[in-house]
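Worked example

This section walks through a single chain of length 251. The input is the sequence exactly as stored; nothing has been trimmed or padded.
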Amino acid sequence: MGTGRRSFVPMASEQQIALVAGGVRGLGLAVARGLAERGLKVHVTWRGSAERADELRDEFMGRLHQVDLADGDATRAMVDSIVAAEGRLDRVCSSVGGYHAARLDGTDAGTLDALWRSNVVTAMNLLAAVRAPLRVRGGSLLLFGCAGLEGLRARRECAAYAAAKSALLVLTRSAAVEEAPFGVNVNMLSPGLVPHDGAHVTTLDPALQAAIPAGRPGTLDEVSAAACYLMSPEANHVTGTDLVLSGGWML
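Given that input, the structure is written out below as tokens.
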């Protein structure tokens, strides 16, 4: 793998440092591996997936960090430790965030609060922690949304989750405006249905997959490639974008 791909690394002495939050499974792990294939030195965070983290210790030797991004102080301490060890931080991606499939009349305020904390508060804490080192490097921050945010359309089964991701899109674009003068780009990647380890059972629903105009769900390789592009030097002038990777689903 990696044949024909442009490296982020112009010289070995200038190896870039990446951080992927929530990178021990699913979409986050695919992004972490994609960045590593392109020559970056990748750090990965996890919160509760201890077994998965143990399986990856040889792959990300000394670069696995247990942290709850909903804790701002812990998030900042984790980022500070990486910068102290590596001397820099160039590319950051967060794939953390809970999901809830239910109608509004089946969703209570506590669930909405949990979705807000796991999808929005975590991103805000991470942004606060990485802002300074990314400004030094002219780096990039990528956050994960979900397909269908642009039209602010009604949701029948995941309204609270989509509401949290819609708030995250506003945060993404606001951060993009604030950070652009410092050479930092901030973007969102919004996948549709992408079967993977840990994905919600509805991702495998044949009826939902049949509704995708492209005729199939997305793949982890496609998510990784899109994420790596948005964090690459080639995308330095791309900021505030919500790149939808859904095969036309929810258009």
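What to look for: The domain at 14-240 is CATH 3.40.50.720 (Rossmann fold).
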